[in-house]
Amino acid sequence: MSERADLPGTDPAQFRVHVASQAIRLFSENGYEATTVEQIAAAAGVSRRTFFRQFRSKEDVIFADHESLLEHVAEFLASDSADPWASVCEAAGLVFDFFRRNRDLSMRRYRVVQHVPALRDRELVTGFRYERLFVDYLRSAVPREPVLEVVGFAAAVTACHNYLLRSMIKGDEDATAEALSQALLDVRRTYGVASGSKTSTPESKSVLVVAFPPGTSAEEISRKIHEQLG
Amino acid sequence: MSERADLPGTDPAQFRVHVASQAIRLFSENGYEATTVEQIAAAAGVSRRTFFRQFRSKEDVIFADHESLLEHVAEFLASDSADPWASVCEAAGLVFDFFRRNRDLSMRRYRVVQHVPALRDRELVTGFRYERLFVDYLRSAVPREPVLEVVGFAAAVTACHNYLLRSMIKGDEDATAEALSQALLDVRRTYGVASGSKTSTPESKSVLVVAFPPGTSAEEISRKIHEQLG
């Protein structure tokens, strides 16, 4: 039997997603513990041996689409970018879009994962791999930025993304791609790296910030600034 | 044999830390796989049964001090605070101080964990429990703040803490408690929640931000501001 005959033209990433979908369907129908590797292989139309060439375990298969997605995100980040901070946010958007397009599958997985502590842990670890990818990318793309700023930014982007992703999967109608874009723009503004702030005025400008009581006259403000600068 | 006779006056938290220390010593001397639960129990002066009353597995014991520490952090956050954002940073400081005081143990554990992927994953999951504690605390302490701001802030604090904690454990002399305080103050400033920003001067000041080329004279700057304000 040709094991891939039923999947003409699929690449390895699509193949992994196909097996993952079948596995998640079986887990949600029959329970995670009760489902065997043999049943998953049969449902996916592959042999047990082919299954184990691609996956080490049942636990492995349930997040198999993340492997492909992580590669996709890494490729996306590897292309040139005029604004690395925005690229990280776009990369997070790609992840969100993928799971929104596969929302039924994501929801079924969510329900399976909630009941198996080992899978919940595995999901957290998987999420952390995106964060590490973002940190590694930014450290090479904006090497002069303080490392802790990069670390904090990547963590904030990942956490906001994960929060909205979970909300979307649980059926929150407000957790849209647009809401994510806005949330990640807010993170960039918070860190002073939105277009129009740090990014577009790198070395060509100095910036002066002045705080004063409301109602202060323009003359008074000018005079105080002059004093400080002089 | 009285199992606790060699540990007079210790409370359950100290007892767990004691067993964890002995386990980590054995893991680092003999390897993680080669060390048995029996050897850990013997080194800690407890029976196998007592061991399994406290821990489910070898994997459990290596991070046992985190359990106590998480409880300690939760208690700390449960007390009243005039500045919840600062309290979260202080809580992260408590964690850092604990591992700095036990740096030898932390370093031995670090070396063991690096070689066992399952333990590395477990450590990530443990770290995430602090982040979730911070999110839950802030959502109840500052309920009017947008949830994504809280989520991003807690993630940034946790990530910066973890980065400096790892640096400290690996022997970086610059990764001090003071460096952590400064880094977390920077996170609060980034989010506009440091004392002196959002917290203490909410409506009493207006702020003017002016960008200008370096070398611009004070007169020129004053004139431009005057123009804009007028």
From TrEMBL, chains A, B:
<feature type="DNA-binding region" description="H-T-H motif">
    <location>
        <begin position="36"/>
        <end position="55"/>
    </location>
</feature>
<dbReference type="Pfam" id="PF00440">
    <property type="entry name" value="TetR_N"/>
</dbReference>
<dbReference type="InterPro" id="IPR001647">
    <property type="entry name" value="HTH_TetR"/>
</dbReference>
<dbReference type="InterPro" id="IPR050109">
    <property type="entry name" value="HTH-type_TetR-like_transc_reg"/>
</dbReference>
<dbReference type="GO" id="GO:0000976">
    <property type="term" value="F:transcription cis-regulatory region binding"/>
</dbReference>
<dbReference type="InterPro" id="IPR009057">
    <property type="entry name" value="Homeodomain-like_sf"/>
</dbReference>
<protein>
    <submittedName>
        <fullName>Putative TetR family transcriptional regulator</fullName>
    </submittedName>
</protein>
<feature type="domain" description="HTH tetR-type">
    <location>
        <begin position="13"/>
        <end position="73"/>
    </location>
</feature>
<keyword id="KW-0238">DNA-binding</keyword>
<dbReference type="GO" id="GO:0003700">
    <property type="term" value="F:DNA-binding transcription factor activity"/>
</dbReference>
